[in-house]
Design goal:
The chain has 293 residues and is an all-alpha fold. It has one domain: Farnesyl Diphosphate Synthase (Orthogonal Bundle), CATH 1.10.600. The protein is 75% helix and 0% strand. The protein is built from 15 helices and no strands. α6 runs antiparallel to α7 and α14 packs antiparallel against α15.
C-alpha cells in the first residue's frame, strides 16, 4: 500500500481525539482504585482496547456519513472533519467498512474481557450501548447530530460511557461515588461538543445539521460554555473535591475568555483546557493511589 494512502487512512481516524477518551477511561479506573478496587495492568489495557476500537470507529463513521456537510466546513484541530475524503473520495467506502470492523473488534474484545476477568454481563450491555451511540451519532436513520441530539449524545459518551468503562471494569458496577463525579464530566462533554460546533456553524446549516449552535447561534454557544464550566466548578467545590475544583479553573477561565472574545479560535483553546483538566486530575488521582500526597 502507498504510504500516502496509509497516512490518509490514519488521518481519517483523527487519532488525537483518542487522547480524551484515554484520559476519561483512566479517570474512571483510578477512581475505582481509590474506592478499594484492585488495579491490574492486564485488565486496564485489555478493557481499554474495547473502548479504543469503539472510540476510533466513531471518527471513521462520522467521516463517511458527514462527507457532504464536512465539505462546507473550515477545518480546525477539533472540528470540520479531517478533509481526507473531500480530497480522496475513493476512500469513503473504506471508511464506512473500517468503522464497522472496529465496532466488531470492540464487541469481540468485550466478550473476551467478560470471560477472562469474570465481569458482570452488564459490561457487554455497556459496550453495545456505547457502540450504538457512537454509530448513530451520524448514521441514519437516527442521526443524532442532525436531529438536535448530538450534544446529549456526546455529553453522555464523555460523562458516562468513557469514564464508566474504566470504573466498571474494576468495580463491577456503579455507585454514588462515581455518579457524583460524572456530573462535571457530563457538563464538560457538553462544553466539548459546543466548542467543536462553533467553528462549523455555517457549514452545518448548509448540510442540514440541527445542532444547538445552528439553532441558537454562536453567542448562545459561548454563554453556554461559560455557564456549564462555572456549574462544573461549583459542583466540584460543593461535593468537597477541592483539588479537582482548582483544576477546573482552567476550563472555566477558557470559557470566560471565549465569552469575552467570541472567536472561533477560542474553541480550540477551550478543548485544550479540558484535556489539561483531565490530565491534571488523573495525575492527582494517581498520586493518591501511590500515596504521594
Amino acid at each position: 500500500m502507498d504510504l500516502r494512502v496509509l497516512a490518509d487512512i490514519i488521518r481519517l481516524g483523527r487519532p488525537h481525539f483518542l487522547v480524551g477518551g484515554f484520559l476519561l477511561y483512566t479517570f474512571g479506573a483510578l477512581l475505582a482504585t481509590l474506592s478499594d478496587a484492585v488495579f491490574t495492568f492486564d485488565r486496564f489495557f485489555l478493557c481499554y482496547a474495547v473502548l479504543f476500537f469503539a472510540h476510533l470507529s466513531v471518527s471513521y463513521s462520522n467521516e463517511y456519513f458527514d462527507f457532504q456537510t464536512d465539505g462546507y466546513n473550515k477545518r480546525t484541530l477539533f472540528s470540520g472533519g479531517s478533509g481526507v475524503l473531500q480530497k480522496n473520495p475513493e476512500l469513503r467506502t473504506l471508511s464506512r467498512w473500517f468503522a464497522i470492523l472496529l465496532i466488531l473488534a470492540s464487541i469481540m474484545l468485550s466478550i473476551v474481557s467478560l470471560i477472562l476477568f469474570q465481569l458482570p454481563l452488564e459490561f457487554l450491555l455497556l459496550v453495545l450501548s456505547g457502540n450504538f451511540l457512537g454509530w448513530y451519532y451520524s448514521a441514519p436513520p437516527l442521526r443524532f447530530s442532525y436531529k438536535g441530539l448530538g450534544e446529549l449524545s456526546t455529553s453522555t459518551a464523555a460523562g458516562f460511557f468513557m469514564p464508566g468503562m474504566g470504573y466498571f471494569v474494576f468495580k463491577g458496577g456503579f455507585d454514588m461515588h462515581f455518579l457524583a463525579l460524572s456530573i462535571p464530566l457530563l457538563l464538560y462533554g457538553m462544553v466539548f461538543i459546543l466548542s467543536v460546533e462553533i467553528p462549523d456553524v455555517e457549514g452545518d446549516k448548509i448540510g442540514g445539521k440541527k445542532t444547538w449552535i445552528t439553532q441558537n447561534g454562536r453567542t448562545f454557544g459561548f454563554w453556554a460554555i461559560a455557564l456549564l464550566s462555572l456549574t462544573a466548578t461549583i459542583h466540584l467545590f460543593l461535593i468537597g473535591c477541592s483539588i479537582m475544583a482548582l483544576f477546573s479553573l482552567m476550563p472555566l477561565v477558557s470559557g470566560i475568555l471565549s465569552l469575552l472574545k467570541k472567536t472561533d479560535s477560542m474553541a480550540v483553546c477551550m478543548v485544550s483546557s479540558l484535556i489539561l483538566f483531565l490530565a491534571s486530575t488523573n495525575l492527582y488521582l494517581l498520586s493518591l493511589t501511590l500515596d504521594w500526597v
